[in-house]
Automatic annotation (TrEMBL):
GO MF, one example: Wnt-protein binding
GO cellular component terms, A-Z: plasma membrane
Family annotation (PROSITE patterns): LDLRB
Protein species of origin: Sylvietta virens (Green crombec)
Gene Ontology BP annotations: canonical Wnt signaling pathway
PANTHER family: EGF-LIKE DOMAIN-CONTAINING PROTEIN, VITELLOGENIN RECEPTOR-LIKE PROTEIN-RELATED-RELATED
LDL-receptor class B repeats: 1-43
Spans through the membrane: none
InterPro entries, per the entry: 6-blade_b-propeller_TolB-like, Cueball_EGF_LRP_Nidogen, LDLR_classB_rpt
Protein's name according to its UniProt entry: LRP1B protein
Taxonomy, superkingdom: Eukaryota
């Protein structure tokens, strides 16, 4: 799945398949300016920052069990969001520091370090990566991902895929090759 935020005409958090199909709104009420998003891949939770409502909130992948983690004026200056173990990590553009927020007790906020001009944050650690099972976009015997000549995008399950072409090419009638 692909998760993303939109604060155009109607602010929302959405998800879709990697090929863009099955687009679903998972949060579309009491949301104004969702600017950062982080996933808990293990427990299947979506966290987001709303800088207009000055809040950090969470829902499950279906948009249920919504909770506010923390709320207040300090949220207005946050950018980027990452989750690891019991904490959310973000960057304060106000004082250029990395903040750690306890995701179960949002009042436990600590500044960890100062950075110059940071706008995003990511946690790279083996435990943050879900195990990868066999999937439809694995390389075929000729080295082509999912048998696609350009791009292979997972569809509604790990067993289904859609081939797409780079800009300037069109998909052939076989649904795999680009011309």
């Amino acid at each position: 799945k692909l998760f993303f935020t939109d604060y155009g005409n109607a602010a929302k958090v959405e998800r879709c398949d990697m090929d863009g199909m099955n687009r679903t709104w998972i949060v579309d009420s009491k949301i104004e300016q969702p600017t950062a998003l982080a996933l808990d891949l293990i427990n299947k939770y979506v966290y987001w920052l709303d800088i207009y409502l000055e809040s950090v909130e969470v829902v499950d992948y279906q948009g249920r069990r919504r909770q506010t983690i923390t709320k207040g004026r300090q949220i207005r200056h946050l950018c980027g969001l990452a989750v690891f173990e019991n904490y959310l990590y973000t960057v304060s553009s106000d004082n250029l520091s990395i903040l750690r927020i306890n995701r179960y007790n949002g009042t436990d906020v600590q500044a960890l370090a100062r950075l110059e001009d940071a706008k995003e944050i990511r946690v790279y650690q083996k435990r943050t990566q879900a195990a990868v099972r066999s999937h439809a976009c694995e390389a075929d015997p000729y080295g082509m991902p999912g048998g696609c000549s350009h791009l292979c995008l997972l569809s509604s399950s790990h067993k289904a895929r859609t081939c797409r072409c780079r800009t300037g090419f069109i998909l052939g009638s076989d649904g795999r090759s680009c011309k």
